[in-house]
Each structure stands twice: as structure tokens, then as C-alpha cells.
């Protein structure tokens, strides 16, 4: 007789002051084997043929025993406080001798539901989650514990508190680590019939009685193996498998076996009787993506019944491929001569295969941050959105930036804010106010951050948990100089601009004898597509753009005139932008005014009129090329990492410096990248400090800026990052926000 299985359950008192403990223990029969046959067969064990007797446990009661106990003042498990106990189940014979012993880590917690709410220990937790495939960049689906730990460390450091095992039960050690680190989990059965979507004449297995046993087997195997893990708050019946009676059967079995957790299944519209959770998909993180995630979370944070979600997905599933010359690259479908394949649709992660962060990860950390700060001119409100953790372990600080430069900082002393609590500071009583009030800069930003006081299992002391920035802006004054009225515009030996009257564009631009621009300024409406632009077949953005021939536009000059005065040189030009396809209509008409001042400032005013039959546009902006030696970039805007108008909440406004080469983001499949949002000004300089300076004018909003050695055409051409070829200049794209 031995312990075959056990199921730990805890029922918490209504006020959570005590827990009734139940352990269902299953005793199993033993078997007797004649092992002499094993040696005759070369040491290969045939258990079925060598079984000579079954030894069953004899008892007047059933083989499943229920052990009961009670624990006062239990330390409850949650992702914020992953408190664990060690359960030991001991089997003794009638003489008190130990016959068998089993043990595991367990957590005491309650999972329940209320109207439109998932509750853990009585609280409507928020799931800040990701979907996770098992993947290692060298050994593929082979699991390595250090890689699992790396994943959990990165998740916790970026405020991720939940994981969905997609789309199969994962390595047993993963569950133990999630229990230990504190990670809410949806455990998912290894069931997917996605391919039947394309087979209209075939009945989906989820509708077929002949497949019921196989589906149940996978669901039962998952539940029975993983049922003692505290991190699992919900079971999932699989992924993208339509919906049918086999799901109903599986759901019925799970609810009968384990009523202590919820049940999840997205198929069938996420509103069937086989799911407790409305769970439509997806927030898709393929390539340069995650735009508008802050808007998702604004809705989640303010709408009753919305409790978060799981980003698709965690890691790019590329494999490191080495070439005979020693070079390496991230390979995906088709790179090994594999047919059929799904191309780069395995590259949907927030991180690269080697666990390097995608720029979007900063945005995820920001929208997932548990400490929120709302900043106005009157009140600074700090909210602790944790459900179990206070701010006792955090240190708050503040810093004020004027026009991008730090002008004051300090520690922000606060009382401890309890879970779901908040604290208000009157604006004028804040420690930053004297610096703020005396500052004459055009723009002033206040940043409030919260850091860990002590080290944790997943981070060192000083790790920034949350950071929020707010702005004070005032109208800037503008000044200019009077210059001559000739087409060759210059100011002594300081600068010179040559403008081509025939084509209405800049021929050259020199500063102190150094060429800074050799081509421009042209209207720009095309960008290299991202992975998500390509999804959707004929209805995808890329298909619609190409149908409108937006990928093959040519610019011609309709008119150009020059008006000079004693103060400025005014150039007015009109462009026609037409697809190069024969018999194409004009797609855009652009009316442009250049005002050239003696200071060397050039004010550019674009008026773009698109035709009425165009799809949503890839971009609207201007493009110019700089000398490649102007590789030192400094900008006042959001950063330091890549960000876009729809993915910028995590990127704080400040003055940043970098090299143009570092701006590029090496997505495995090249596409649009390297953008920086809400840029007030940007400079490109050579090693001697000579270059060009671009800024928003008057009341114009901040701009979106890209700078790269790789042209848009090159990013569009290459299918792997290592195929990219740098150009002989720096392509700069500036867009209106």
C-alpha cells in the first residue's frame, strides 16, 4: 500500500481568520513483477507481461481518505505575498511504522467569483499578465531552470503578476517557481483544433463524440498533475478549438473535481457555459507593436468588471542559427528549409529569444505599475492599487526638469499607504514647489518614482517599481533676424542654403562649411510595414495600402515661387504625389511654404490634401537625408527607448543623447522602427559639434521622429535583420503628432 495521490484544499473562514484544511489521500494497489524476464529481453522492462499479481489495500472504507485540520491566523498566498507552507503526508502501518511519505509546497488562498468579478482572498485582483510558450533560443522546447527563473525575474521586475500557460501544461518546475515567486496562473489543457477552421467540410473534433475521451484525458491529466499548486487560479480547456459538447463534458468534470478554482475558455465567443470568465483575444505583441496599450489599461482601471488580461505573448520563439562564416541570426519559419512553415508568426514576444527586452516592454511596465500618481496644479494623488501590499517597502522620490534638464530633486516623505489606499499632497506644499514656482523654463516636468527599499527574490534594492511624469507648459517666445533676398541664402560664413527652383526642394544645406543635408525636404507617406500591418489577408493594412499603390509614390513639382523681403525669404511650392503605376490618379497634393530667416532658421508649413479614396495612411510627414557623419543625436522628448504616439506612456519626457546607430531596433523581421514620440527638438551633430537642429514651431504639437542608417525601402526589402544594408546617409522622418 502506498500514497498514490493527494489533493490539498483549504476553506477560509468568512473573515479569513482561520482555514479549515482538507487533504484527500488516495491509496493505491501495488504490483508484483517477475523481473527475470527483463534480463532475457536485454534489460528492457515489459511491465504488462511481467505483472504476476496485484496487491490491493484492504479497508472497510474507500481507498480515498480525507484528513482534516485547522490553522488559525494563516498566512495567505497571493502574487503580492506568496506565502507557502510545506505539506507532508505520512502513511503508517498499524504498528506506527512509516510506510510512505509525500510532500509539496502549498498555499492557503481562496479563489471565488462575484458579480462580474474574479476574487482572490475576497479581493477583485487585477491580472497584469502575459501568455508564455516554453522556449529557449538554443534548445527550443527543452526546459532549463535558469531560463524559467530569468523569465520570472523579468516578469516581476516589469510588474507582470500573471501568466497563462499557452497552450499546454508546462514543465513541473515552472509551477513550483510560480508558487514561490508569486504569479497568478491559468493552466491550459493541451487542446487546439485551430487548423479545422480552414477545413469547412470536416467536423471539428470538439463536436465529435469519438474525440470526447481524448479531450477529457488531456483535461483530467492536467488537473490531476497540477492541482496542488497555489499559483493556479483558473483551469483552461484549451485554445482556439471552436466550441462543442466535448467542452461541456470537460467543464463538467473539472467543476465536479475542483470547485476551488475558476474555469476559462475563449472559444465560442468567450461567453459559453464552459467559462466563468469573459476572455476575448488578443493584445498582439508581434514585432514593433503594443500601440494603444495605455488606452486598454485606462479602460481596465476605470471600468467595473474589467480585471486585466494576458498579452500575446512573452518571448520571440526564434532559434539561433549559425552560418559557416561564424555569423549568427535569429531564425524563424522557413530558415531551416522547413515546409510547411508559418514564417515569422512565432515572433510575437515582448522580449527577444535571448530575453533582451523589446522597447514595448517599458510601456508594459508603465501601464502595469501598481503605484499610480495623478498630477495636477492643485493636488498630487498617489494611489496604491495593490490588494494586499502596503507601500512600507517603497521609497518615493521626485525630480523636476526644466526644458529637459534637472533643476531639483529629493526624497518624497509619505506615510505608509495601505492596499487600495491613496494619499493627497497639496501642490503648493510639495517639496518641489519652490523649484517649480521659480522656474522660468518653457516646459517643466515633475517625475515621481517609487523604488524598493530592500532586495527581493526578483530584484535588488533600488529597483524602480513605478514612475509617473506630469508637465507644466507655457508659450515660448520666437525671435528672428533680417537677411538678404537672394535665392542663395546665407549668413556670412555661418550657413548657406541652396534651393532648387525647378524642383522646389533643398539642393544643399551647409553650416560653417560642413554639408549637413544633401537631399530634401520631401513629403513622406510610406513606411516599412510592421508584422501586425500584414495580418488579416486581403483586409490587412498592408494589402489595402498596396492596393492603393501607396508603396510606389513619386513626387513632382507643380509650381514654385520665391518672395523676398528685408526680413525673410519665402518659398512657396506645390507638389503632386502620384503612384508610379500607369494611369494612376494623384494621391496627394502638397502645398508647402518655407520661411528662411537670417538666423538660419527655416520654418516649414505643409498643407496636405489626400484624395478621397485612400485607406488609412501609413504615415504623413516629411523626409530628408543628412550626412552620415552627423551621427550624434540629442532630442528633447520621450525616450530613451523606441516609442510611438500609441505606445509612449512609459517613455518619460527629458533630454536624451545617443548614436544614430543605437536608435535602430533589431526586430528579427525588419520593419518600421526607431521612432521617438513627442519630440520638441532634435539635433544631429558630427564629432566637432556641427550639425542641424529641428524643433516644433509656435503652437504646433510635438513631433514623431525617426532616424536611421537604413532607408525605408531597405527596411521594407529585408526579411531578416542581418540582410539589412546601411545607406550612405542618415534618413530622417518627421511626422506631426
Automatic annotation (TrEMBL):
It catalyses: Hydrolysis of terminal non-reducing beta-D-galactose residues in beta-D-galactosides. The keyword Hydrolase applies. Its EC number is 3.2.1.23. GO terms for molecular function: beta-galactosidase activity; carbohydrate binding. Residues 488-737 form the Beta galactosidase small chain/ domain. One of its GO terms (biological process) is lactose catabolic process. Keywords: Glycosidase, Hydrolase. It is an enzyme of class 3 (hydrolase). It comes from the Eukaryota. One of its GO terms (cellular component) is beta-galactosidase complex. PANTHER family: BETA-GALACTOSIDASE. This is beta-galactosidase. The lineage of its organism: Eukaryota, Viridiplantae, Streptophyta, Embryophyta, Tracheophyta.
Amino acid at each position: 500500500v502506498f500514497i498514490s495521490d493527494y489533493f490539498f484544499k483549504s476553506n477560509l473562514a468568512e473573515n479569513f481568520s482561520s482555514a479549515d484544511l482538507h487533504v484527500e489521500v488516495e491509496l493505491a494497489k501495488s504490483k508484483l513483477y517477475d523481473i527475470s524476464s527483463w534480463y532475457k529481453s536485454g534489460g528492457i522492462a515489459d511491465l504488462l507481461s511481467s505483472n504476476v499479481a496485484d496487491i490491493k489495500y484492504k479497508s472497510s472504507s474507500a481507498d480515498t481518505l480525507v484528513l482534516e485540520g485547522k490553522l488559525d491566523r494563516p498566512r495567505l498566498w497571493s502574487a503580492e505575498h506568496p506565502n507557502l507552507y510545506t505539506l507532508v503526508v505520512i502513511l503508517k502501518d498499524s504498528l506506527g511504522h512509516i510506510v510512505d511519505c509525500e510532500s509539496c509546497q502549498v498555499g492557503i488562498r481562496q479563489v471565488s467569483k462575484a458579480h462580474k468579478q474574479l476574487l482572490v482572498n475576497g479581493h477583485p485582483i487585477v491580472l497584469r499578465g502575459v501568455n508564455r510558450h516554453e522556449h529557449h533560443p538554443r534548445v527550443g522546447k527543452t526546459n532549463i531552470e535558469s531560463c524559467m527563473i530569468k523569465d520570472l525575474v523579468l516578469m516581476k521586475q516589469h510588474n507582470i503578476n500573471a501568466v497563462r500557460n499557452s497552450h499546454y501544461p508546462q514543465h513541473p518546475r515552472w509551477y513550483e517557481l510560480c508558487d514561490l515567486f508569486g504569479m497568478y496562473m491559468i493552466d491550459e489543457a493541451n487542446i487546439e483544433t485551430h487548423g479545422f477552421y480552414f477545413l469547412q467540410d470536416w467536423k471539428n473534433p470538439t463536436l465529435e463524440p469519438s474525440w470526447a475521451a481524448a479531450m477529457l484525458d488531456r483535461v483530467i491529466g492536467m488537473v490531476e498533475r497540477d492541482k496542488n499548486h497555489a499559483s493556479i487560479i483558473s483551469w483552461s480547456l484549451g485554445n482556439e478549438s471552436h466550441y462543442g459538447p466535448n467542452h461541456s463534458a470537460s467543464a463538467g468534470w473539472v467543476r465536479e473535481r475542483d470547485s476551488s478554482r475558476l474555469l476559462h475558455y475563449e472559444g465560442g465567443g468567450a461567453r459559453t457555459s464552459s467559462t466563468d470568465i469573459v476572455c476575448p483575444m488578443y493584445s498582439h505583441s508581434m514585432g514593433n507593436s503594443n500601440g494603444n496599450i495605455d488606452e486598454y489599461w485606462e479602460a481596465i482601471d476605470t471600468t467595473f468588471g474589467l480585471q486585466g488580461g494576458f498579452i500575446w505573448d512573452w518571448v520571440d520563439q526564434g532559434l539561433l542559427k549559425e552560418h559557416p562564416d561564424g555569423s549568427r541570426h535569429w531564425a524563424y519559419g522557413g530558415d531551416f528549409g522547413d515546409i510547411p512553415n508559418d514564417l515569422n508568426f512565432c515572433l510575437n514576444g515582448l522580449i527577444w529569444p535571448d530575453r533582451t527586452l523589446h522597447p514595448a516592454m517599458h510601456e508594459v511596465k508603465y501601464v502595469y505599475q501598481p503605484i499610480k500618481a495623478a498630477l495636477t496644479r492643485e493636488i498630487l494623488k498617489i494611489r496604491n492599487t495593490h490588494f494586499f501590499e502596503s507601500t512600507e517597502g517603497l521609497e518615493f522620490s521626485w525630480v523636476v526638469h526644466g526644458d529637459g534638464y534637472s533643476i531639483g530633486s529629493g526624497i518624497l516623505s509619505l506615510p505608509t499607504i495601505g492596499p487600495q489606499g491613496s494619499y493627497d499632497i497639496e501642490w503648493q506644499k510639495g517639496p518641489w514647489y519652490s523649484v517649480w514656482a521659480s522656474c522660468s523654463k518653457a516646459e517643466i516636468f515633475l517625475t515621481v518614482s517609487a523604488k524598493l527599499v530592500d532586495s527581493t527574490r526578483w530584484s535588488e534594492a533600488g529597483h524602480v517599481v513605478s514612475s509617473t511624469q506630469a508637465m507644466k507648459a507655457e508659450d515660448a517666445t520666437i525671435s528672428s533676424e533680417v537677411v538678404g533676398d537672394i535665392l542663395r541664402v546665407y549668413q556670412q560664413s555661418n550657413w548657406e542654403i541652396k534651393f532648387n527652383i525647378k524642383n522646389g526642394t533643398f539642393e544643399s544645406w551647409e553650416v560653417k562649411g560642413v554639408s549637413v543635408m544633401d537631399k530634401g525636404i520631401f513629403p513622406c507617406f510610406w513606411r516599412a510595414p510592421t508584422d501586425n500591418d500584414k495580418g488579416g489577408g486581403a483586409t490587412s493594412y498592408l494589402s489595402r495600402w498596396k492596393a492603393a499603390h501607396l508603396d510606389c509614390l513619386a513626387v513632382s513639382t507643380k509650381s514654385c515661387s520665391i518672395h523676398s523681403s528685408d526680413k525673410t525669404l519665402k518659398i512657396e511650392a506645390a507638389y503632386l504625389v502620384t503612384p508610379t503605376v500607369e494611369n494612376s490618379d494623384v494621391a496627394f497634393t502638397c502645398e508647402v511654404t518655407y520661411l528662411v530667416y537670417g538666423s538660419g532658421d527655416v520654418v516649414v508649413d505643409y498643407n496636405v490634401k489626400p484624395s478621397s479614396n485612400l485607406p488609412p495612411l501609413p504615415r504623413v510627414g516629411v523626409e530628408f537625408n543628412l550626412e552620415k557623419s552627423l551621427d550624434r543625436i540629442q532630442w528633447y522628448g520621450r525616450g530613451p527607448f523606441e516609442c510611438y504616439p500609441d505606445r509612449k506612456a512609459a517613455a518619460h519626457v527629458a533630454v536624451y543623447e545617443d548614436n544614430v546607430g543605437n536608435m535602430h531596433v533589431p526586430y528579427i523581421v525588419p520593419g518600421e522602427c526607431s521612432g521617438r514620440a513627442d519630440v520638441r527638438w532634435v539635433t544631429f551633430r558630427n564629432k566637432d559639434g556641427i550639425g542641424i537642429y529641428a524643433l516644433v514651431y509656435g503652437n504646433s504639437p510635438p513631433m514623431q521622429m525617426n532616424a536611421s542608417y537604413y532607408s525605408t525601402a531597405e527596411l521594407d526589402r529585408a526579411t531578416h535583420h542581418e540582410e539589412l544594408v546601411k545607406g550612405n546617409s542618415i534618413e530622417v522622418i518627421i511626422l506631426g503628432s
